[in-house]
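To illustrate the input format used throughout this study, we show a single complete record. The first block contains the structure-token representation of the backbone; no residue identities are included at this stage. The design step must infer an amino acid for every position from geometry alone.
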């Protein structure tokens, strides 16, 4: 992995080229292979890193208003991710919604994250449940299917968040691809056009982080960035 420090002391991720048996097209900003003691090294590209590796000058994580402020600037604060699906009131998840979230979270278990459901969620204190899922459209832009926001930032000098909320529309919208997509934001992944350098937000290598969400799970590129970030 390659680290690059920007104006805001941000981290730039590097990921291996060749996720499909070395057949990936080389990007224009890709560094040429280098030699290490006579041994050729695989070329690397920088792409799709989590929010704390966003473009230099990116804002630190802060407490967002209900529904967020339209910017993804936070990442869950540890690799042990506890999640809860709202079970009461107007924000509760229906059976099909819950299935979508469970399947999405199962996909993230293939990373270095430790994912488990929290049957007794904490909404205050130092050990809050990391991600809370809701159904609804309140404060969800008409152009979006869902939003992710930080309810309790871990500190003004970090990109970490102690508790994040995911709210997705109902009526058939709450499906695995969008659940996977918003979960990706909660753990720090961004859209392709928000990465630095950017790539197409429709690129298949983004898995469920494509915009709009078309794929049901993260792909190899997502998993590598997650593992490096935790």
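Output of the design step:
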């Amino acid at each position: 992995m390659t680290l690059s420090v920007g104006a805001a002391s941000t981290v730039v991720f590097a990921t291996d080229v060749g996720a499909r048996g070395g057949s990936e097209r080389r990007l224009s900003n890709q560094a040429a292979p280098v030699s290490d003691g006579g041994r050729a090294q695989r070329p690397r590209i920088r792409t799709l890193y989590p929010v704390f590796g966003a473009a230099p000058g990116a804002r630190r994580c802060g407490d967002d208003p209900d529904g967020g402020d339209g910017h993804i600037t936070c990442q869950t604060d540890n690799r042990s991710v506890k999640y809860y699906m709202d079970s009461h009131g107007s924000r509760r998840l229906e059976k099909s919604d819950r299935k979508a979230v469970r399947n999405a979270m199962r996909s993230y278990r293939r990373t270095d994250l430790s994912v488990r459901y929290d049957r007794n969620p904490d909404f205050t204190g130092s050990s809050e449940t990391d991600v809370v899922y809701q159904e609804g459209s309140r404060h969800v832009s008409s152009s979006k299917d869902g939003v992710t926001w930080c309810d309790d930032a871990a500190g003004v000098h970090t990109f970490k968040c102690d508790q994040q909320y995911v709210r997705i529309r109902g009526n058939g919208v709450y499906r695995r691809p969008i659940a996977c997509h918003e979960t990706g934001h909660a753990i720090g992944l961004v859209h392709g056009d928000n990465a630095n350098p950017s790539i197409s937000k429709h690129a298949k290598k983004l898995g469920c982080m494509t915009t709009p969400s078309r794929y049901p799970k993260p792909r190899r590129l997502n998993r590598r960035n997650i593992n490096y970030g935790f």
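Structural context for interpreting the output: The CA atoms of residues 30 and 45 lie 5 Å apart. Residues 75-229 form a domain with the Collagenase (Catalytic Domain) fold (CATH 3.40.390.10).
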